[in-house]
Structures are given as C-alpha cells and as structure tokens.
Write a structure and sequence with these properties.
This protein has 447 residues and is mainly beta. It has three helices and 22 strands. It has three domains: 128 residues, Ubiquitin-like (UB roll) (Roll); 40 residues; 260 residues, Porin (Beta Barrel), CATH 2.40.160.50. A hairpin with a 5-residue loop joins strand 4 and strand 5. The longest helix has 17 residues.
C-alpha cells in the first residue's frame, strides 16, 4: 500500500512500454483505469493493453547529421535494418550515440512503416562543436597556480577519429601529451590509440620525471564489456632534493627504462561516461613490466562505481572505489612505481598527504598497496535550473601503505583508513564545467 503519485504511475507505464518493446512490440497503447473507493480512500489501478503486433525494423533514418558521416552514427546501433524490433537494443543504441559526445541532443521516434509489422526508426541529432582550443589559468589549494593549453578534436572531419595535444604546468607538475585515436580500426569494432608523453611531478622534496610513448587496441563485447591491450615504453628518473631525507627511493638519480604491457577488461553500464547519474562500472587493469628494460614488476588495479537516481531524479546517489597493488618480480619496488594518495582522491587532504613518510624530510614516499573510495549525493534541489548548478555532499576515504625499503620511513605498514567529508558546487558554464569543493578531514594522522 503506497500513496498515490502520478509520477510513479507514469514511471510504471514507461516500464511496461519498455518491457513490451523488448519483446518486439513497437506500438503499444496503454490505458490506465483508476477506480476510487471513497469509503477506504484507496485507488485501484488497472492498465489495459491494446492489441499490438510484433514489429521489424524496416529502415533506420538519421536526420541532421550535417558534419558527422552517416556511417559513424550507424555503427553505434545495436539494431540493423531487418532485425526484429527491440526497445532495449534501441535504448542501448541511443546511449552509445550520446556517449560519442558529438551531439548536444539525440531524439528518436518510431514510425509505422510500409505495413503494420514494419517500423521506421527515425533518429534526429543536433550536432555540436567537437573541436576545442583551451587556454586556462587556474588555482587550487593542492597545486597552487596552474596553466593549461590544449587542442582537442573528437570528430576529425566527421570520421569519429580523435586528435589531441595538451600541456599543463603548475608548481607541482607538468604534463605534455600528443595522441590520436581511431574508433574503428581496419573498419572493425577495434579502437586504436597511440601517443607520446612527458610528465614531471613533485612529491614534496622528490621529483619524478617520465618520458615515453604508448599504443593500444581495444574492443567492445556483448553486455557492455570492453577489452584493451596496450604497450608502453618510458624512461623515468627520481631525484631527492632534501638534505635530511633518510629513506631509500631505490632509483635516486638513475635513469630507469620501463617496457610494460597492459590488459584491461571491464563492464561499463553508465548512462553517461563524463557525468554519470545511473548505472554501474567494473574494471580490472593489469600491467606487467620486464619485457626488456630495467624495471620488473606487476601492477593490478580494480575499480567499481554505482550510480542511482532517487526521488524521480531529484537526487543522484553515487559510490565508487579503487584498489591497487604492485609487486616486484625478483627485485624491489622503487618509488616511481608506487602509489600516492591525497587531495585528488581524498578531498581535504594535501597532495600525497596520505601514507608513509620519509622520517627526515617528511616527504611522501608512496606505498605498494592503495585503497580509496567515495560516497556522494548530487542534486539541483533549491537551485534554479537556469543557473545550471548542482550541489553535492560527499565523503572520501582511503589509505596507502607498504614499501620494500622500510628503513628511514614512518608508517610504512600503517593501514589506517583516512577520511573526509565535504560539500561542493558544480557549475556548467559556457566556458566549461567548474567545480568548487570544501572538505574537512575527519580521520587523519599528523606527520
């Protein structure tokens, strides 16, 4: 027994329509009949389903794709002309097309074809700019002043190919990357990518530089599963500038050549990869270094996410987590191969503010094992939709521990979980999304 809510009734009718659509019925008339009992104050709701026939897809028509090639859109469809109509596959197709990021709006309607058994699926898209030239100057409490420059084209000449060039500079890091991606390599369901990069990061008194190139091939399988195989060749160097440091990095001043292969398998059922509000994500990444080069280690990372709308999309609940481990293969794990944890993942903490520290310099030395996660609620309640703003309440947590060089290190095996709580404001502006967070650590340890 529930209170009557017209939104719940509309949602129920939509679910019935979708379930019938999954069985092949494209055109179904639903007639809800509501009978009121004045004595008990209760309602009886009966849903009458009109006669319908199973349908087949006669044609798929794509409208308004002026720049994007027709084939780029069609290859995202789970249905092809001649198939039995299936609403679930059609919904998956729409999600695939939206995730391309080429269109600001995607609408679909089913029209009666040449006979009652035939359906014409008409997809109308509204194209948006896919090329970006970005120049940014920003400030954060983690990295202070930062400068960013980027050129990004996600749909080169309407082919779906992506080209990118990015550079970022702050007091804590500098990153340069040039990359290209082909979504349908050799005309098949294979994604190819290649890139060159140069990264430098400063972890307190330790500087780590890394230069190299990578490439990979991926493909999607049934039930939203995806696979990626990659290779990276890089050269890194770790430098300790502190005169009081007591820990051993395992590579201070040395040039380390790393030749590593990677494999990723996952299942992505998020409604939107960039800004999810519903669905799940599971991913397992493995990396093996030692195919030549100097470094020999094995890394594994698992991550998962779950998002769900609540109260008819008035609130969005999300939880996500990640766990990582690195082990040396016949040798010790050095500092540049370890994991670092701080304000990027556990908001409210300093950059690399969690985990083992150098006893002398108090600098972060990283750890071989990492666990982190977040719980968050996002909503626009109380804010005008015209502002394009949402608020969020969140709690982050995490820990990193373990080192093969425990001498001169404080808290090398401290697995205590650190956590924080906070609020934030998410603002979609004409120049891009802006995020403001205020977080306070509730479980911390001083160093």
């Amino acid at each position: 027994d529930n209170w009557y809510d017209v939104r719940a009734l509309e949602q129920g009718l939509l679910e019935i329509t979708n379930n019938l659509g999954a069985l092949g019925y494209a055109f179904v008339n639903l007639d809800p009949e509501i009978v009121t009992n004045p004595e008990t104050g209760q309602l009886d709701i009966a849903v009458n389903i009109g006669k319908a026939r199973k349908n087949f897809v006669e044609r798929i028509e794509i409208v308004n794709n002026v720049r994007t090639k027709d084939s780029v859109v069609r290859r995202e469809f789970e249905l092809v002309e001649g198939d039995a109509f299936n609403q679930i596959k059609l919904d998956e197709s729409i999600r695939n097309i939206r995730n391309l990021g080429f269109f600001s709006d995607v609408k679909v309607r089913n029209l009666v074809g040449s006979s009652e058994e035939q359906t014409i699926t008409e997809l109308t898209v509204e194209e948006q700019s896919t090329g970006e030239l970005s120049i940014g100057l920003g400030y954060s409490s983690l990295e202070q002043t930062s400068l960013a420059f980027g050129i990004d084209e996600r749909n080169f000449l309407g082919t779906g190919r992506a080209l990118s060039l990015s550079f970022e500079l702050s007091q804590k890091r500098s990153n340069f990357r040039l990359g290209v991606a082909e979504p349908y390599l050799f005309g098949r369901n294979l994604t190819g990518r290649a890139g060159v990069f140069n990264d430098k990061v400063k972890q307190d008194s330790v500087s780590i530089s890394k230069t190299g190139f990578d490439f990979g091939i991926g493909f999607e399988a049934a039930q939203d599963y995806y696979h990626n195989v990659g290779y990276e060749l890089s050269q890194s160097k770790t430098t300790e500038s502190s005169k009081t440091a007591t820990s051993i990095t395992g590579e201070n001043g040395a040039q380390i050549l790393t030749s590593a292969a990677s494999y990723v398998v996952g299942q992505d059922r998020l409604d939107n990869r960039l800004d999810p509000s519903e669905g799940t994500l599971f991913e397992l990444r493995q990396e093996l270094a030692g195919i030549g080069g100097d470094a020999k280690f094995y890394k594994v990372t698992g991550r998962a996410a779950y998002y769900r709308p609540v109260n008819f999309n008035a609130l969005f609940f999300g939880v996500k987590g990640r766990a990582s481990q690195v082990v040396g293969l016949g040798e010790k794990v050095t500092q540049s191969q370890r994991f670092f944890l701080g304000g990027r993942d556990v908001r409210g903490f300093a950059l690399s503010g969690i985990g083992p520290r150098d006893t002398g310099s108090k600098a972060a030395v990283g750890g071989n094992t990492l666990v982190t996660g977040s719980v968050e609620v996002v909503s626009h309640l109380g804010l005008s939709k015209d502002l394009n703003m949402r608020w969020t309440v969140f709690s982050d947590f995490g820990s990193v521990w373990g080192t093969d060089y425990p001498s001169g290190v404080t808290g090398a095996n401290d697995k205590s979980m650190r956590s924080s709580v906070g609020v934030g404001l998410l603002w979609d502006t004409v120049v891009g999304p802006l995020s403001f967070y205020w977080a306070n650590p509730v479980s911390k340890k001083s160093y």
